[in-house]
Specification:
686 residues, six-stranded antiparallel beta barrel, 20 helices, alpha/beta, 33% helix
């Protein structure tokens, strides 16, 4: 139906004079009512090539003037005008954004019908085709009343997406509704989907609980860190510390010096060696530990003797090393250790301390001469005893144990322990981290690095945070429950190469986790998933896709320099994840704080109301096809409405998102009810 003609053509807008017979802003076509006089509604016009140009109404004017008489020939003597903005072109039943050939003056302007929009938006009624669902229902058009908007499953989920908007604008509802649409499908349900939600506010379990009416084959799982057993539908979430790689450890510990990377690597290696000692042979573990400690101290003392010139300085440094190592041994070996082992180690430390004798500033080579006897040459170690003289001490060997003597070092066994290297993902007991730190610090100081404790002070404080703070309890597990990262992904998330599919919808409630632990948790889990997907080749890359939904994404995908994880795994996933069928859906109320790389790599955007000017300017600067008129639409949107644009729709559309039922737990507090409501008390007394 024609409503008027174009009387002015500009590059970005057309001026339309309505027919005098077009008295109302509504028309009835085939029983359907169309509101063409609304801002944001659609009209169409033909160009010289016979192609329809789709336009959006941006302004409506009603005025009276002498100019009307000049248009009477064209039946345009109405006082009403409409300004429309060209959006795209419908060519051969295929719609594309942009206009190639513009319409001429006095070209008719027509109503856009539901049939036109069906063709433009490639409408699908939601029914499965050959058992495969191709669309999900997102809501109704704000411009065309009661017109349903469907999103193409491939176009939406096959690229990264962003859901943006102020707090209370409807982001959580949008994500919950989208997932409801996916997991409620019947006739070939979404059995192969895998969605992991990092729920920063604890909102989503309410939306996906028993009342969610998900398909019976869909298995939702709700995790919560730092709980010891299942409670209120939540299962304990753990992130084993030993699955963290070196860079993740260093980021969490806030290392600031390049020298700290090899330092912490040695700490992890020493922790694994101590763990290996105590888990190889329970009958010999204390003996092996003592032998290894003696071997380590001998090396430290040898380095001190070789490096320092003054005997006084040598012995001062040597005595300090002995004293520190004695403290380490006392904290590492409990009362249940074989008394003979404790006695032998104590005699060794006492002997080393005695050998650090100084007489008028000279040691008379007491320590250096004795060190040569500490290590066994023959197959059967002997015993070393120290004889004290007035100006020096002398070490002697004995075939039999005598009071105050210690057993020689079995160097082959110590070397076997030292060569036992920690491989990525292998278990080690975190209780040995402090002992390992003390050992490495002593070794560094023996090599002359006397400021190592100053360089690592922050790292040590962060280590204490990991060891003792309740926030990190979900990282501290006592047993090697997971063989490696792949075993962890399979048991925790159901991600594996097997044909069995489970845990399609996983929610991790991190509302009670601090910022540092949250950043670490999201990054490590995402890194493990990314590493798993990168190992796939050929057709396997296109199978078993995984979607990560990042709630409150600005908390752990920030663009500022204070982000704890130096290498942002999400930027890497944003750039490369699509090749491995790993996708991000980010949700944020502060787009200006998000990583520019992540936001710009998104192909779909659902933007709710944003009032902050800084956020709007940031979105405008990051997205190349974001026009200024979008800003007005977004600012004027009411809660629940959103502007959708990107790959999933042929053109930007303002949509009233369907309300998710059950809804996420994101409602505001009803202040008046909380303040003034009083429960009616019935007097049951007689």
């Amino acid at each position: 139906m024609k409503i008027g003609k174009i009387i002015s053509v500009e590059y970005d807008k057309f001026r339309v004079r309505l027919f005098h017979t077009t008295r109302n802003s509504t028309v009835n076509i085939d029983g359907k009512v169309y509101y063409f006089g609304n801002i944001g509604s659609y009209l169409k016009t033909l160009n010289s090539s016979g192609e329809y140009v789709l336009c959006e109404v941006v302004s409506i004017v009603d005025w009276v003037g002498k100019e009307n008489q000049f248009y009477s020939t064209y039946n345009l003597d109405s006082s009403r005008e409409i300004i429309i903005k060209p959006i795209g072109t419908l060519m051969h039943e295929k719609f594309c954004m942009g206009v190639g050939i513009f319409p001429s003056l006095y070209t008719d302007v027509e109503i856009v019908t539901f049939n036109d929009l069906d063709l433009i938006l490639s409408y699908n009624d939601g029914c499965a085709i050959d058992g495969v669902h191709s669309t999900i229902f997102i809501g109704t058009s704000k411009s065309l009343i009661n017109y349903s908007i469907e999103l193409d499953v491939n176009q939406f989920f096959n690229i990264h997406s962003a859901v943006l908007g102020n707090s209370g604008s409807g982001k959580s509802n949008t994500i919950a509704h989208i997932l409801h649409e996916v997991y409620r499908k019947h006739d070939n349900e979404a059995f192969g989907a895998k969605t992991i939600i990092f729920d920063a506010n604890g909102e989503y379990p309410m939306a996906f609980g028993e009342e969610a009416n998900l398909h019976k084959t869909i298995i939702p799982v709700f995790y919560k860190p730092n709980i010891s057993k299942a409670v209120d539908g939540y299962k304990p979430f753990v992130l084993p510390y030993y699955l963290m790689n070196l860079d993740e450890w260093l980021s969490f510990l806030m290392e600031s010096e390049r020298t700290q990377k090899p330092f912490w690597d040695r700490v992890l290696q020493e922790s694994y060696k101590f763990y290996s000692i105590f888990n190889t042979d329970k009958r010999k573990d204390a003996h092996r530990f003592a032998n290894y400690i003696k071997w380590k101290l001998r090396q430290m003392l040898f380095n001190i003797v070789s490096r320092i010139d003054s005997d006084t300085s040598k012995m001062t440094a040597a005595k300090g090393a002995v004293a520190m190592l004695r403290q380490t041994c006392n904290s590492s070996l409990g009362d249940d250790v074989d008394k003979n082992v404790l006695t032998d180690l104590s005699n060794f430390l006492n002997a080393c301390n005695d050998l650090c004798v100084i007489n008028f500033g000279n040691n008379n080579d007491s320590l250096s001469n004795a060190l040569n006897l500490f290590t066994a040459i023959e197959d059967e170690p002997k015993y070393v005893c120290i004889t004290k003289h007035r100006d020096h001490c002398e070490a002697n060997l004995s075939d039999y144990i005598i009071e105050g003597a210690f057993r020689q070092i079995d160097e082959s066994d110590a070397l076997a322990v030292d060569q036992n290297k920690l491989k990525p993902g292998k278990y080690f007991d975190y209780h040995y981290l402090r002992t390992a730190v003390d050992m490495v610090l002593l070794e560094e100081e023996a090599h002359g690095n006397l400021h190592i404790r100053d360089f690592t002070s922050t790292l040590m404080s962060r280590l204490d945070f990991f060891l003792y703070n309740p926030e990190c309890a979900f990282m501290r597990i006592e047993t090697p429950d997971y063989l490696d990262c792949n075993d962890y992904l399979e048991k925790m998330f159901g991600i594996s190469d097997s044909e069995e599919k489970s845990k399609q919808l996983i929610t991790i409630d991190s509302s009670e986790v601090g910022t540092d632990a949250l950043e670490l948790m999201t990054s490590v889990v995402s890194r493990m998933v990314f590493d798993y997907r990168k190992c796939k080749f050929g057709k396997l890359r296109q199978q078993k896709p995984i979607h990560l939904i990042l709630d409150e994404a600005h908390r752990y995908i920030r663009k500022d320099a204070n982000y704890i994880m130096r290498e942002n795994i999400f930027e890497k996933i944003a750039r490369e994840g699509r090749k491995y069928s790993l996708y991000l859906i980010i949700s944020s109320q502060r787009p200006s704080e998000l990583s520019q790389t992540v936001l710009s790599q998104c192909g779909n955007y659902i933007v709710h109301r944003i009032q902050n000017e800084v956020d709007m300017k940031y979105i405008y600067s990051v997205l190349p096809y974001f026009s200024e008129d979008y800003i007005t639409k977004i600012k004027q949107a009411v809660p629940g409405e959103a502007l959708i644009f990107g790959n999933c729709v042929p053109m930007p559309i303002m949509v009233k998102i369907k309300e998710a039922k059950p809804a996420p737990n994101s409602k505001n507090c009803d202040i008046k009810m909380e303040w003034f409501y009083k429960e009616i008390i019935t007097d049951t007394t007689i």
